[in-house]
Design a protein that fits this description.
By secondary structure, the protein is an alpha+beta fold. The protein has a domain of about 120 residues: Roll (Nuclear Transport Factor 2, Chain: A), CATH 3.10.450. The protein has nine helices and six strands.
């Protein structure tokens, strides 16, 4: 189930003024502030999660369009063929290829909001207190940290891999800071954290959780992508 479900436009996939091809640094989807009830619809929440949006971005544009039109909106192959200027037979092949691609890369199983919140609470406490060991306890050994500053704000220039590297980086940057505050919110249908510096939104952190441990950390700092954190975005199927 892809990310455009019920969103007026698929902002998360390409709404930044700069397309991924010319984007400076790591590209991450825009964080959308969502209401808590979105998390209750597990399938919808999964479809708009940061991890799933990143999977969708690995599809070619036509594959992504076919996948969304077929899997989200339930259009027939004839209608899709007309929309993408392909034959129905070609659309069937594209749809099959896209489904296979997504199935192979989508996050493993649905993680409950309570499990994600539990991991995030432990993560927040460890970062705020600068407790490296507690942070390592909630990070998976092969955790990956991605940062998106869009060339405007400083962010990690490439993925940081491994609990020790990620933990030490976070503790050095945020541990014990009195100017920084981490607050829980709902982003893209999932529990997340907003980092504020002196009261202003600085970073939105979403996570991927597997087996109770954080396996992916996605930190968006690009100011151009934080505008949708000012008000809730209505998501529906």
């Amino acid at each position: 189930m892809p990310p455009s479900a019920g969103v007026t436009e698929p902002r998360g996939t390409a709404s930044c003024a700069c397309r991924r091809e010319s984007y400076v640094g790591t590209w991450l989807p825009e964080p959308l502030l969502t209401s808590p009830d979105v998390a209750e619809d597990v399938e919808l929440a999964d479809s708009v999660s940061t991890a799933m949006l990143l999977v969708l971005e690995t599809l070619a544009p036509t594959e992504r369009a076919v996948f969304v039109l077929r899997e989200v909106f339930g259009l027939g192959y004839e209608e899709i063929a007309e929309a993408v200027d392909k034959s129905p037979a070609a659309v069937r092949q594209i749809a099959h290829r896209a489904r296979t691609h997504v199935a192979a890369r989508r996050p493993r199983g649905a993680v409950s909001p309570s499990e994600t919140r539990s991991a995030l609470d432990a993560f927040r406490r460890a970062v705020e207190t600068g407790d490296l060991q507690s942070l390592l306890d909630v990070l998976a050994p092969d955790v990956v940290l991605l940062g998106d500053g869009g060339g405007v704000r400083q962010a990690v220039p490439r993925p940081v891999v491994g609990a020790d590297k990620v933990g030490r980086l976070l503790v050095a940057g945020l541990g014990g800071s009195t100017a920084a505050s981490l607050r829980p919110v709902q982003v893209n249908g999932r529990p997340a954290l907003v980092l504020r510096l002196d009261g202003a939104i600085d970073t939105v952190v979403t996570v991927r959780v597997d087996d109770g441990l954080i396996t992916g950390l996605y930190a968006v700092r690009n100011p151009g992508k934080l505008s949708y954190m000012q008000r809730e975005t209505a998501l529906r199927r």
